[in-house]
């Protein structure tokens, strides 16, 4: 079977699955390019409100393909990065469903999502120094923002492997799921699916913007224009009318 990014769009959620079982879903240049295209298709589909990224069991993603990595120079590295960076830059809300090992570039892919949910066999492994290479793709920036400098140092400098329960405890993952991870992601995405898409995308843009702010008043200013726009949109008027009707029993 040819390695591929399997893509399904259903019920407002796009599910992208790395399907390369022989290499435990390692990212080749071709798979990274496919992932970029799949993310772009999801963003362009007006019916899609959220994106889920996962890997065919048993792994999430074993990292960059080692042969590809061995031959890579700057252009090659950036081509490998392109797949997970497309998730990091995605305008849609994103969820990584991590059921197995997320290693190296696979760790980066998991970190690139807005939210991570994990199965019992999930584990997060930096591995860069173990291979004798420097971290790349913004890994050091992403991991420190999520778990803080001490945990990030333990994972990056000392090779600490973070399992499912520890990932939740450290804030690396949102929750541990015993059952179907993709269905759990769909359930998590339901409020996003039910929201007006333009307001949803604007809210994600604002989250990115305000994350870098240090002043409360600047955040108020950043939010007021898109909030005013949403208050004058037909979707708000329709929902307000339904809510009032429900409150009055009409």
UniProtKB/TrEMBL annotation:
Transit peptide recorded as keyword: no
MF term (GO), any: enoyl-CoA hydratase activity
Domain of life: Bacteria
Keyword field: Lyase
Claim: Cell cycle is one of the keywords in the record: no
E.C. designation(s): 4.2.1.17
InterPro entries noted in UniProt: ClpP/crotonase-like_dom_sf (IPR029045), Enoyl-CoA_hydra/iso (IPR001753)
NCBIfam families: PRK05870.1
Stated family: Belongs to the enoyl-CoA hydratase/isomerase family.
Name this polypeptide is given: Enoyl-CoA hydratase
